[in-house]
Structure formats: C-alpha cells, structure tokens
Write a structure and sequence with these properties.
Number of domains: 2
Largest sheet: 7 strands, antiparallel
Oligomer: single chain
Radius of gyration: 26 Å
Number of helices: 9
Bound molecules: zinc ion
Length: about 350
C-alpha cells in the first residue's frame, strides 16, 4: 500500500521567498515545455528535452536537473491527457529528487533553489518519524495555505491478515458518525458544534458579500474540512483498534447500490455529510489494511428495519430516526446499534461456507 507522508518545512522568510521563486520558475518552465511540445506534436521526455532544455536553463534560470524535472512535469501531464496543453499554477507542486534534495539528519533538508542549496528545518509527527527511513527517491514540494510541505510517497507492507472468526459491524451516519456492534457510539456532536458555529459565521459573511468576506468564507470552509478530517482519523483509528484487539474483522455497508436504500440517501443528502461519510469509510479501509484487519462490505438493504434479535423485518420496527422496537419480539434498542449488529452478522455470514449458516446445515 502506498501512503503519502507530509513533512512541514519551517523556512526563514528569506528561504520562503527563495522557495517561492524557485517554484514559480519551475512551473513557468514546465508550462513552457508543455506548450512547445504540444505545438510540435511531441509528448515524450526525450523529444521535448531536445527542443527545450537549453531555453529552460537560460530563460528560467533552472539547474540542469530542475530542467529535466520541469519537462517531466509536462510529460506526466501528457501521459494522462494528450489533448490539452496544460498551464501549471505558479505555485504548483515541484518535484525534488535525490539530485535536488537530501535529508540532513531527521530535522533538516537541503533543497536546491535558484540561489543554490538551502538548509531548511522541518517538523513532523511521531507517525512520520517511525516511517522516516522508508522515504527514499523523490518528494514533492507543495505550498498549501501559505505553508511549505514535502509530500513523500512511501510503500508500506499491508499487515499480516488475520482470518477473523467474528466481525465488528459498523453503521455510519450523520447524527452518530459511527456506531459499532459493541454499542460504542462516535457522535458527531463536536463536528456538529463546529459546523453550526461556521454556518452562523457564513451567513453573516454572505450578507456582506465583499471580497474580504469571500476570502474569509473560503478559510472557514477549509477549517471545517480539516476539523472533520481530524475527527475521521480519530474515529477510524478507534474502530480499527477495537477490531484488531479482539481479532475480529470489520463489517461495513456496501454502498455501491446506494439508491436502493432511502435512509442512506437521507444521510447523504447533506453535501457536507456526503464527502465526510465517504472519507470516514476510506480511512477505516486503509487503516484496516495496514493493521491486517479484514473489511467485508455487506448488502445494506433493510439493515435498519430488521430486528437484530429475532430477524423480523418490518418498516414499522423503526420507531424513529433514533429508536428501534421490534413489532415481533418487542426487543428495544437504539436504531444505529441495531443496524451495526445486523451488519456484523451479515459480514460473518458472508465469510462462512453455506453449510455453517444456521438453518442451512444439512
Ligand atoms: Zn425481534
């Protein structure tokens, strides 16, 4: 599995200006190389190299290897789409390979700029520290929200898979972001509080409708999505840990046929909820793969209408958004918990040979 590690750079003001200037020259050069190639009907590295290499060095002041990488950026784009001549953003990502960059210990990186090599301090968390030795080859220099980062792709072996005997079912939602079949609920309260606060601010800003207000709106949206991302990381980590600690797999709903289920559609109606929902699920899946925890997607139909105690399925079982009460056996339980238990048993059923299923044994 390939992961991207983010390392934040702490350049001085002077270094930041140098990095910015280098990125600008690099991207202008990549745009130039793409245009020359595009107009000449050439899309490969050697052919564009022949036409542009010396101009890139003279016109844009790039080092030899930077010129090669700028052409590479254009070629990479053409590999995805030959029909468009790209114009790269001035502060778009810049590739740094081993000839342009080297780590000096674990807290400094040497980066080649238009003015020569600069030693730039960097910071990162414990997670990145543990995987530092895997960072080889190339990284991308990225400018995001005024901060410089290095993005490094690393290959991590998937965890040794456990063949689970049992499953932890997980029901994803909006009110409760996730509920598992052990009864643990990860509420969306903190997320909802932040969202409400931001909605208020947003309304006020929208009324003002000035340029400053628009800028601020953008910043709020980013802040909110960062917060939700953080929450999703925490929740998915807890879910995967709970499954791993008990040698269980994880059952989730298969949402490829989402239209068949009205309640999911309702969950997804909120656009904000829609992407966040998908993100939480994606986080659960990749963390599970890393931990060697098996994830099984189950048929989502009627998971919220079926009694997890006796199996009776009826629309009226679901009293309200939050409450489930079986019309057959009178079992009363929170609706999300009930759904999570159904998902767990479906995941288990999906993994067992038919002869072991109750009622089907010969
Ligand atoms: Zn029942």
């Amino acid at each position: 599995m390939v992961l991207t590690l983010q390392l934040r750079l702490l350049p001085t003001a002077k270094q930041a200006a140098q990095l910015r200037a280098t990125m600008r020259a690099f991207n202008a050069a990549a745009t130039y190389a793409a245009r020359v190639g595009f107009e000449a009907g050439l899309r490969s590295q050697p052919s564009i190299h022949r036409l542009t290499y010396y101009q890139l060095r003279e016109k844009f002041g790039l080092s030899s290897q930077m010129a090669v990488r700028a052409i590479g950026k254009a070629v990479e784009y053409f590999a995805r789409d030959k029909t468009v001549c790209p114009v790269f953003r001035p502060d778009g990502a810049m590739t740094y390979d081993e000839r342009l960059m080297s780590f000096k210990g674990m807290d400094t990186v040497s980066l080649l700029t238009l003015d020569g090599r600069e030693l730039v301090p960097l910071i990162y968390g414990e997670y990145q520290r543990q995987r530092f030795d895997r960072m080889k080859g190339q990284v991308d220099l990225v400018l995001r929200d005024g901060q410089f980062y290095l993005y490094a792709s690393i290959t991590v072996p998937d965890g040794a898979p456990i063949e689970p005997a049992d499953f932890l079912g997980v029901d994803l939602g909006i009110v409760n972001l996730a509920t598992d079949s052990d009864g643990t609920t990860h509420t969306g309260e903190a997320v909802e509080r932040v969202r409400r606060k931001h909605t208020k601010q947003r309304r006020a800003l929208q009324r003002r409708n000035t340029r400053g207000a628009k800028k601020k709106l953008k910043r709020i949206a980013k802040k909110e999505s960062r917060f939700r991302r953080h929450e999703n990381h925490c929740i998915s980590k807890q879910i995967v840990q709970a499954a791993k600690d008990t040698a269980r797999g994880i059952g989730v709903e298969d949402l490829t046929h989402i239209r068949e289920r009205a309640t999911v559609r309702r969950k997804q109606r909120n656009r904000q909820g829609g992407w966040a929902f998908a993100q939480l699920r994606a986080f659960v899946e990749y963390k599970a793969a890393l931990a060697g925890v098996r994830v099984v997607a189950v048929d989502p139909r009627n998971t919220s209408r079926t009694c997890s105690q006796c199996g009776h399925c009826e629309k009226g079982n679901r009293k309200s958004q939050a409450e489930f009460r079986c019309l057959h056996c009178d079992h009363s339980i929170s609706a999300d918990f009930n759904a999570a238990r159904n998902i767990a048993s479906r995941a288990q059923a999906a993994c067992k040979p038919a002869s072991e299923l109750p009622g089907l044994a010969a």
